[in-house]
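For reproducibility, we list the full input for the nicotinamide-adenine-dinucleotide complex.
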Amino acid sequence: MDHNQLQTYYSGKKALITGGLGFIGSNLAIKLVTLGAEVTIVDVLWPDHGGNLFNIEPVKKDAQVNICDVRDECAMRTLVKGKDFIFHLAGQCSHVLGQSDPYPDIDINIHGTAIIMEAVKKNAPEAVTVYSSTRGVYGSVDKLPVNEETPTDPKGLYELSNLTAEKLIKFYGDVHGLKVVNLRLSNIYGERSQMLHSKFGVVNWFIRLAMMDETITVFGDGKIMRDFLYIDDCVNAFLRTGASGTAYGETFNVGNDQHTTILELVNVILKVVGSGKSRFTPFSKERAAQEPGDFYPDISKIRQAVSWEPLISLEDGLLRTTEYYRRYQKEYW
Ligand SMILES: NC(=O)c1ccc[n+]([C@@H]2O[C@H](COP(=O)([O-])OP(=O)(O)OC[C@H]3O[C@@H](n4cnc5c(N)ncnc54)[C@H](O)[C@@H]3O)[C@@H](O)[C@H]2O)c1
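The corresponding predicted structure, in tokenized form, follows.
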């Protein structure tokens, strides 16, 4: 599906985006408005999470914003009414926080998802729900690349809560006949991610450090393999799977099959930003225990189902991201 086909599909459709003031949700909101959709956002806008009203600046007159918690059952029942799409991105998304306090993950990611799915079942049974899960549900893996048949073995509360939310969503698809899609996202980077702390995503944090001419710490020898996906490619995966009957009921990896090491990533960031430095440091015992090791996904399933694939190279994506934060630094620092 190219831009015109997506426009034909989404134009005039009504979409609800939970977590729509956050990184991925706001980029999705902007794209949907561009395609002619009517967008409603739900976001709790807690400080320290990724929500930022500036994120939707380009569409602030077009998107309707509701500052509320997805666990507000009454609000959610009202908000899903009449919607064609529910893009569910609200969540506690810090792996680090989940290690010390399990309750936000359980409360928001599991209970919150149940509230949304009940609301959809009762008040929007024809709507398509697309959920943003994480590649972390796989845990440590023996075989690369990782396809969707790989057994799940989450290593933290955050990952466990995402897997449970996925299963809840699949249950509503299988048992109640709702149209649902689960996306297991890799490391997404790009414009509109919060830049205040390192708890949510390593790429954006490294960009900040480089922009501030500070030192990026690389654990171990930096040879751990990961994949990094630019935000526009990620948004495109939400749009394509949401628009395709062949995707309903399915779970897809959404990542980049062009994998790279952490050290390579850091070197590209230093080159693109033009400042900053790096240094190696040994893994602490705690970090080593949480480190799932090499990971990169097999994306042939989503490629085959909806002809999706990453289009933006790492260097190009990092350039675009850096330019954005140079221009709007005061809104994010
Ligand atoms: N960014 C990534 O690399 C990545 C990778 C895997 C999965 N994910 C998942 O994708 C989703 C979106 O991630 P993101 O990077 O955009 O994060 P983000 O923190 O930028 O956005 C999440 C938004 O959800 C909102 N929110 C949190 N709890 C809420 C609640 N109870 N009610 C309403 N709103 C609430 C926050 O205020 C925030 O604006 C998350 O569920 C995350 O777990 C992200």
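The chain has one domain: 3-190+228-257+295-311. The pocket of nicotinamide-adenine-dinucleotide is lined by residues 18-19, 21-25, 42-46, 49-51, 69-71, 89-91, 93, 108, 112, 132, 134, 185, 187-188, 194, 200-201 (CB under 6 Å). Both points were considered when choosing residues for closer inspection.
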